[in-house]
Amino acid sequence: MKEMIRTDKLVFEYIRRDEEGNVEGITRAVDEVDMSVSPGQFIAILGHNGSGKSTLAKHFNALLYPTEGEVYVDGMRTEDGEHLWDVRQEAGMIFQNPDNQIIGQIVEEDVGFGPENMGVPTDEIWERVDESLKAVRMDKFRKSSPNHLSGGQKQRVSIAGVIAMHPKCIIMDEPTAMLDPTGRREVIRAARALNQVENITVILITHYMEEVVDADRVFVMDKGKVVMEGTPREVFSQVEKLKELKLGVPQVTLLAHELRKSGVPLPNPILTRKELVDALVGIRNSRKK
Amino acid sequence: MLRDITLGQYYRADSVIHRLDPRVKIVATFVFIISLFLVKNFIGYLVAGLFLCLCIKLSTVPPKFIFRGMKAIFFLLLITMVFNLFLTPGEALLSFWKIKITKEGIKLALMMGVRLVFLITGSSLMTLTTTPNNLTDGLEDLLKPLKKIRVPVHEISMMMSIALRFIPILMEETDKIMKAQMARCADFESGSLINRARSLVPILVPLFISAFRRANDLAMAMEARCYRGGEGRTKMKPLIYKKEDAIAYLVLVIYLALIIVLGRILFS
User: Can you tell me the ipTM of this complex?
Assistant: First the structure.
């Protein structure tokens, strides 16, 4: 099967210059990353601040070009100018700050912005706007001004704006970082629905562990490199290593980890509250016998 | 609340005037303003006034809203009228010391006053019945011919609509920064004018930095959504003239003819 996104030895360097334009220093933000994402997957990229995860994400949308190595989106090399707009249409992007990515003054106009840019005929724009607002359940607010919406609602509008472009893949660059817990849940639910119902590949960049539990694959980044990779189960079983990378694990997983350290025979890892309850009940029942 | 500020004071209603194509309204406003300067006698002003009243009636905007805009120009109005009243030479009606009021002065002052009031009322009727967005769309379309002489019409209208979108956001941010500085004992209210102006620096600097950051983010978000200028772009809400708009244009032509005939030719 063709890969949705593939990177080959991707390197990206920020060059800092002083006032005269001399090179002061080079920061390697992304360092030889090999990554491949199959269509329809839900991928999570984890990493603390400055680990290069956002820089990596901007490569998937051809907003940045690799210093070395290559990035392919649906088989198209992002550096080839001829595919630029196809790449951007196929790989939609959601950013962190909900205020800074809404262009329209009315919700429906903002959702229509992408299709307008692509030159979609007027009637079809309206169809697309309708269906994408419904997909994120924001159709009630279509005539509202974005300034009157909550953070979570604004992010859902942004998501609708990307869906209206009919992408194959959505890259979400810390979409929940500026939201309250309710907003965070709304956005993650919308992302998951897209993945499952519409079969759109989702790449979620985050530092909230709870959002990662249901992902198909998790990549952990540190200092521009991918340091861990696997299913959430595989990654979260290494609590100590994640701690070294200054990353937490979901609360339940941490609790189970501590319990295990103090001698409770729990399986490793435990990702959800239900799993923990079941395991504890199991232990109690076996002791009764 | 700051979030509720709408620029151009749009009054939400569903009237004939509201439904008109923004291009019609922009053209009409211009024609109306020009007509005010064509008029030379009171009959003409009467026609203009009646036309304006008709439009206001049709727009269902309460007159209260329309005259609210008048407060801003009250002083301008006063000064214009006073100057015209006292400084027009002619046949003196009243005079004491060096000041005299002339017949011509009264006439001119009244004319200027009425003209200004009509001008402001007419243009605020346009902004009251047209959303800022529609207004920019209309302007973009009307200015299209300027593209031939390389005026970036699409870009200008895009800039205008982005500015409109960000005004409330930046207002809120200003408020936030002010409160943050006030919490650290900044004083914006007392002191001389110069001191007060100086105290604005700690507000403006962070505001500008944040505005630049936002602009950067927004540019990236627009690029990510395939924005590449006006070329090959379709419209979600294209402007299409309807029957009502044709009628409106017709009414406008009739009005202009009336003004010219009555206000300049017949009673001059």
Answer: 0.85
